[in-house]
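Review form for a predicted model. The reviewer records the input and the model, then writes brief findings.
Reviewer: anonymous (R2)
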Amino acid sequence: MTAATHSPLFPRESDTGQIVAPPRDADAVLDGLDPEQREVATALHGPVCVLAGAGTGKTRAITHRIAYGVRAGILQPGSVLAVTFTNRAAGEMRGRLRQLGAGGVQARTFHSAALRQLQFFWPKAVGGELPRLLERKVQLVAEAAARCGIRLDRNELRDVTGEIEWAKVTQTVPADYPAAVAKSVREAPRDPAEIGQIYGMYEQLKRDRSVIDFEDVLLLTVGILQDRHDIADQIRRQYQHFVVDEYQDVSPLQQRLLDLWLGDRESLCVVGDASQTIYSFTGATPDHLLNFRTRHPGATVVKLVRDYRSTPQVVHLANGLLNQARGRAAEHRLELISQRDPGPEPVHTEYADEPAEAEGTARRIRDLIAAGVPAGEIAVLYRINAQSEVYEQALADAGVPYQLRGAERFFERQEVREAGAALRGAARFGGNDSLLDDVVELPSQVRAVLSTKGWTTEPPTGSGAVRDRWESLAALVRLAEDFVRAKPTATLADLVAELDERAAAQHAPTVQGVTLASLHAAKGLEWDAVFLVGLTEGMMPITYAKTDEQVEEERRLLYVGVTRARSHLSLSWALSRSPGGRASRRPTRFLNGLRAGSAVPAARGAGAAGTGGSVERGGAARRARRGPVLCRVCRKTLTDAGEMKLMRCEDCPSDMDEALYQRLLDWRADQAEQLSQPAWCVFTDKTLMAIAEAAPGSAGELAGISGVGSRKLGRFGADVLAICAGEEGARGAGDD
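Model under review:
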């Protein structure tokens, strides 16, 4: 998993990949920039609007702009505030600026910057201590609903909480919520009047308990700056130059805060791409980006269209998607121009059903890894998180390690904290530590210390917690190797200081493993190979995208997914949800005219980019159609994946041989231990239950059980059949 703009621990020359020292002077900061990036970097006065397409090096351009201004003496580091939307992006920006010799520049999220100001000025503006910040609002929303006599299940609670957040960032008060929903053509998760009532009670409970939420941080900062001109002037004296990244995602409330920070000045640089607006459900709008030149008639406008990330084949498909787009954002789309050598054509694959799609994807991933593509440079992206389970299972069955995007931050993981403490102790008392006797070079010292925490020269097989821990420690080893290459005289104490600084910047090294993520979560990242899965009507665009603008946002979401890929791009869909189901699904309309055999949409036919890649039929799609899967007890049609494994409804009576099931569990535990894999990587509980119920007597009968598959049949089939036959003594996992 890699940040969308290349950002290793130390800056690298894009053409050589070699680690280099920070620029020697201001002019050297401009070295290596293309003409448009250089124009951005040298435009230090007046309003500046950078329209930056995917993969065009926007972060590089704006960090070099700030660094050039600082190194040239035009900008004072403490007078610059760079604002973005995630802690990761802010940390990346701080790290780059530090390496460019522009330390001291503030790079923060809107919330982080506002919270610091609020904490500092609250005693002066209001008096007393700032109310406690509510970390999670869900529990308070649940209580507010209960007090209103409204019962919410877990999903409704999450959705109503999201509606309250949307209302606050769009500056909508509880009484106005129903009207605001109607005006925005927003589909509320339940009666808007009820949500407005819950919203009002939630705000009352916060006041009663003297707590604030994250949206209040922005609202209260705006209120203070509006009411206290002396405080606003003090902030404006400190911050005289502003840079806003991902400007297409600014909400009305964030724009209001930015306006108050600026005052009547125009020392503002914004960077964005209207074609990557995918967070409107949170209140984000590209209108501020699209209207920038209207609000600032004298603005310098620079377009970045040289794509350094993706091959011409990937860029061709991405441009084709936008060529069919409609609406105001589409009118401002950027035609990307790939700067890379040609690569493979995108592959479009049709499968019979979702399990077949997941299994086919896992096979292709395994082939890519065998061909030399690191697992950490591969991603499977889907529309909603609920789609992940079948891919988790398929990758586990294929023996491919994976990680779910959105997991705990790197430096917050227990094993990383423990490793940091061990390295810190070794740096302090290393001279008295026999572990470091005769170990001179820094990477060897790190390996020696981390070997006490579970790091080994060879990774454990499979995935799971053991592999996750090893990967975290291995990332620290790789970081030490990079560090000493950049600073040959570095000591263990120097490395510890660097780790502390990186932890503060939330800038984590890459952990190996295929990434599973939603398309929304993939924004800002990139991989060598990307698999876009589940691309059917109803999922892409999602079924609840009703209006033209909602459908266009879905197209932009797919565009974001496509532009995450550097070289290998696979797009796939399944004709039915489950094996034997009716093949009633259709591939997404967004690929019409872009995949072989599909018609160009009539409305935009002239602008279509033509076909890109080829359409393959997944192996399962070639199999003969089977009828629906029926419960073998009550004959009801099964749709749940777990029930289909058992061939019966969950609540139908089971004829499972309990003793056989226990023997299978014991055998699986032994296999998992030998393989150093989680037990479910051998067989899931549901598969073992199905085996115990069926008690297969032949390889053919065992192969017919869902979850077995040809690979596991070959590896474990003889053992399982022997256990089912009552024979003792199973083969070891490595005996095949």
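Findings: The CA atoms of residues 377 and 466 lie 21 Å apart.
Further findings: The mean pLDDT is 82.
Recommendation: see findings above.
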